[in-house]
């Protein structure tokens, strides 16, 4: 099970000592609030909207739309890992302090397709680990 974001919460993740990771969205904050705070802290934010997503195929169909993946995304787990460890498709002019993916409605996806959710979560964790020691880390928050 994914850990909750440790105290003192989002501000420590965006500006300080909390390491990048795959965490649960703080229960006191909405995805809109988190996205706004991250943008203010110069993090690049993407929202993966999983409403109605109930299986691997639907999950992999939603990723390129919401995360704006490049055309070469192959709609499989390996391609997801490749996109999340590349991020050249996501970079804009100038530097971001970090990259944040907010996976909204994660609990419903997890309930409908627990094996697929575990696989996606493992891929998210591998990507977070890949970016952890770089100048602009990646974090994923599961809503």
TrEMBL record:
Protein family membership: Belongs to the barstar family.
The name this protein goes by in its record: Barstar (barnase inhibitor) domain-containing protein
Signal peptide: none
Organism whose genome encodes this protein: Streptomyces olivoverticillatus
Entry-linked InterPro entries: Barstar, Barstar-like_sf
Domain called Barstar (barnase inhibitor): residue spans: 43-142
């Amino acid at each position: 099970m994914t850990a909750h974001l440790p105290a003192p919460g989002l501000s420590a993740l965006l500006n300080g000592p909390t390491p990048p990771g795959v965490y649960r969205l703080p229960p006191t904050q909405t995805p809109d609030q988190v996205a706004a705070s991250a943008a203010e802290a110069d993090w690049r934010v993407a929202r993966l909207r999983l409403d109605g997503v109930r299986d691997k195929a639907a999950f992999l169909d939603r990723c390129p739309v919401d995360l704006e993946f490049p055309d070469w995304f192959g709609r499989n787990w390996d391609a997801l890992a490749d996109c999340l460890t590349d991020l050249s498709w996501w970079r804009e002019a100038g530097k971001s302090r970090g990259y944040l993916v907010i996976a909204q409605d994660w609990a419903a996806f997890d309930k409908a397709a627990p094996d697929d959710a575990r696989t996606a979560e493992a891929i998210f964790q591998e990507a977070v680990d890949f970016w952890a020691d770089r100048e602009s880390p990646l974090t994923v928050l599961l809503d």
